[in-house]
Amino acid sequence: MKFFIDTADINEIRDLASTGLVDGVTTNPSLIAKTGRDFISTVREICQIVPGPVSAEVTATDHATMLKEGQKLARIAKNIAVKVPLTRDGLKTCKRLSDDGTMVNVTLCFSAAQAILAAKAGASFISPFVGRLDDVATDGMLLIKDIVDIYKQYPRFKTEVLVASVRGPLHVVAAARMGAHVVTLPPNVLRQMYAHPLTDKGLASFLEDWKKTGQSILGADDSGKKQAAE
Ligand code: G3P
Predict the structure, then answer these.
(1) I need a surface site. Which of 7, 9, 19, 108 has the fewest CB within 10 A?
(2) Measured from the CA of 31, which atom of ligand 1 is nearest?
């Protein structure tokens, strides 16, 4: 499963990319607006920090302008994935950009019918928004299972299911159980995934007992004298 980070905050991206666990980044107009920074230069900087796919979204709604914007965004860096909304014009633009070899992430997906069209249009990624479906009392993860199962019927589909609008670690676990290809995580969700009070408690106990031995791994002499197992 690939982990993308869902933010345009350079400091957050740099911090989490340093773990080696980050395979890409997704942004959208709201996340860009939140930074208060210039869109193009921010995306360019992100592409230099994370070598994997970096999603940058068009803001036009008509095909002709979407295409121009998408072609301009694709020129920023080779790892740009142009993001288009799942509309008629977004699908038309996706088909044209993907035919030209550009990575496309089709976003704002809320149904299996939409996801089938995105695959038909040659999308590299489809982004179903699970959190926003949950918000309206619809089980977003059931949509993920539906799309994964449908795509499996057509091996020629190259579209990867990119679970978006993730609100917590349980969305990630459920997505992994279903075989989703990618999850895009708000920074805090990735941190929530590794944080566990029992891990902290166990580590404190190990280190307390180790301290009593008075030994130090790096401080040991080079005589090869065995250190007691931890
Ligand atoms: O990638 C889409 C994501 O940014 C939307 O998240 O929580 O606003 O539904 P949310």
Answers:
(1) 19
(2) 4
